[in-house]
Predict the 3D structure of the following.
Amino acid sequence: MDDYLEQILHLIETKGYARAVDISKNLNISQASVTNMLRRLDSEGLVIHEKYRGTTLTEEGHRIARAIIVRHETLTRFLRLFDIDEDTIYHDVEGMEHHVSRPTLNVIRAVADALEADPQLLEHVREQSR
Ligand code: MN
C-alpha cells in the first residue's frame, strides 16, 4: 500500500495525474492488480479513483504519501553519507522503509544530522566502515 501511495504522489507531482497504466509500469505490477488496489484505497478514503480520469489523493492519502516520501528521503540521506553506490542505496531503502518504525527513523534522522554537522566524525565512521 505504501508503494502505491508513494508512486501516486510521485506521478501527480511529475505529470499532474496518476493513471493505473503508469503505476503499473513504475511498480512492475499487473494493471489488474493496480486497479484492485486503487479500488481498495478508494474505499479506505485515501484516493479517489475514477476509471477514465486517473487517480487523485484525498487529504488523508496525501498526508500519508508525504510521510512515506519523507521516510524514503531520510533513509536515502543517511545512506548517502557513506560510500554506498546509488543502486544499493535505492534497493536497501525500498526494503528498510517498510520495516522501520517511527522511533528508529527519528534516531536515523538525528544521526544523519549529527554526522552532517561533524565532518571529522563522519570521516571517522566512513573509515571504520570501509
Ligand atoms: Mn520508496
In short: The radius of gyration is 17 Å. The domain at 2-57 is CATH 1.10.10.10 (Arc Repressor Mutant, subunit A). The pocket of manganese (II) ion is lined by residues 6, 72, 94, 97 (CB under 6 Å).
